[in-house]
Amino acid sequence: MGKAFQYLLLFINCLVSFHETTAQDTKIQIACIGNSITFGARVQNPSSESYPSVLRTLLQSGGYSGYDVRNFGIGGATVIRFGTPNIWKTVDSLKVYRPNVVIIEVGTNETVSAPRYNWEHIGDFEKDYSAYIKAIKEINPDCTFILSSPLDMVISTAGLSPERINDLTLRRPRIWELRKRIRKIAKAEGGYFLDLTKPFESRSNLMTTSDGVHPNKDGYSYLGKLVFDFMLKKGIVQ
């Protein structure tokens, strides 16, 4: 094999590599940020059954190949800085990922009182939420934001203990209050508001048995479809 032919092969390989890298770099990056519901808790395979995974599958099967979906869900996370853990720890990873679209799903863990005392710091909710959005805008000023309300807590879910029922009965009105607050934040920040509270109201068939907070496999599939349909309706996915 002559050197000229070897150089030709090397040149072709470089072109292919450049094309693949460019194609990857031009994908629209979708970051799904939130708590354990974003992560995909309570199902066997979050990597394939979480709502971000469902969203990715729906995009691919729908022919929307120019989109990349990344799951930044953290179990137990809040947007208020007081919470431990909180979604602020994702900022460094987002600096690397540089998302074009950010979907934020928080609020469930903010409703917790003792021993975590998150609700006692709910006065910081709007301030910390807006500051988090600002931090992402510094990464990508053109980023599109979808702010979702937390899923409703379904007290009629099978298998709930009396203690769990009492806990959810206390916390559920806080979910609906945060739904109103998040709608206002979305308007103030120029983002989209996605209501996930009403669609899960009384949907015990979509919730994990003995839990009432986290979706089951069918619930995550439903959640992913809600997000997918919303993005299509608003023209975020084209």
Written account of the structure:
The chain has helices at 3-25, 36-39, 46-49, 51-61, 91-97, 125-139, 162-189, 217-233; strands at residues 28-34, 67-73, 101-105, 144-148, 192-194. It is an alpha/beta fold and 238 residues long. The chain is globular.
Strand line-up in the sheet with most strands:
2-1-3-4-5
End-to-end separation in angstroms reads 47 Å
| Helix-and-strand structural type | alpha/beta
Low-confidence stretches: 5-10, 14-24
Would you report the number of β strands?
Answer: 5
Could you give a short account of the major beta sheet? 5 strands, parallel
What best-fitting shape do the alpha-carbon axes yield? globular
How do the helices and strands follow one another from N- to C-terminus? HEHHHEHEHEHEH
Q: Summarize the amount of helix as a percent range.
A: 40-55%
Number of helices: 8
Over all CA atoms, what is the radius of gyration? 20 Å
Oligomer: single chain
Query: Strand content of the residues, in percent?
Result: 5-15%
Mean pLDDT: 92
